[in-house]
Design goal:
This is Nucleotide-diphospho-sugar transferase domain-containing protein. The chain is of the alpha/beta class and 220 residues long. It contains seven helices and nine strands. It has two domains: 39 residues, no CATH class; 164 residues, no CATH class. Helix content is 34%, strand content 16%. The strands form four sheets. The protein has a three-stranded mixed β-sheet, with helices on one face. A two-stranded parallel sheet has the order 1-2.
């Protein structure tokens, strides 16, 4: 009800090895949603204390494999959509400024991020609690190539296996800090104190102030 499906393609990525996920996928397909299935791949032969969480994190870095859309908006599985997703104001600064808005706070809550990226940043994009997190299609591949290179590895997965067991990282922080540093022509960073910029349409918390602000800015 919050997304115009004539404009946005809603894609569900489910576990290929799960019969229940296939049952869910069949139901979603009947209602004209896009569904794709992902195999465990990296986690077939590796132990993980939190396999579902780690796999979700890993999948985010590869989400461009499932779509050809110019812009990809990622929503956490536990996030709630609380207002209409506008095709411009939910993504960009304005009609005239088509840079993707990344909203941040000044903090360092995920200490692994700078180790993974090999540069320091005081911007935390995860704790700003803004969903979806929008990125260019190209940013995902560019990030994987960058991390593979700075770690002197042959494949991104080799790097992921070195840091994934330490939960003190955020895939969104890594993506956003990379985009801010290396693709700033396509992105605009604002702080959580800035009331200008893209409208937040979903969050992990569902605090009433988020809902009020999102609704007012969208329908004003």
């Amino acid at each position: 009800m919050f997304v115009d499906r004539n404009i946005f393609d809603i894609l569900f990525i489910l576990d290929n090895e799960s019969s229940k996920d296939h049952q869910l996928g069949d139901c979603l397909t009947q209602h004209n949603y896009s569904v794709k299935y992902e195999s465990p791949l990296l986690f077939d032969n590796n132990q993980s204390t939190l396999p579902g969480y780690d796999r979700q994190q890993w999948s985010t870095f590869y989400i461009d494999r499932f779509t050809n859309s110019d812009y990809i908006g990622v929503i956490d599985a536990d996030a709630m959509i609380f207002t209409f997703m506008h095709p411009i104001f939910s993504i960009f600064t304005s009609k005239d400024d088509r840079r993707i808005v990344l909203k941040a706070i000044i903090a360092e809550n995920y200490h692994q991020d700078k180790r993974i990226l090999q540069f320091n940043s005081t911007l935390d994009f995860m704790w700003s609690n803004r969903m979806p997190m929008w990125y260019r299609y190209e940013t995902f591949q560019n990030l994987r190539n960058y991390i593979t290179s700075v770690w002197n590895e042959t494949h991104f997965d080799n790097v992921f296996l070195k840091f994934y067991e330490n939960q003190s990282y955020s895939q969104f922080n890594i993506l956003s800090n990379y985009a801010n540093r290396f693709e700033s022509n396509y992105y605009r960073v604002i702080l959580n104190t800035d009331n200008q910029g893209a409208v937040s349409v979903a969050s992990n918390r569902g605090w009433y102030i988020d809902i009020f602000v999102g609704c007012c800015q969208t329908f004003n």
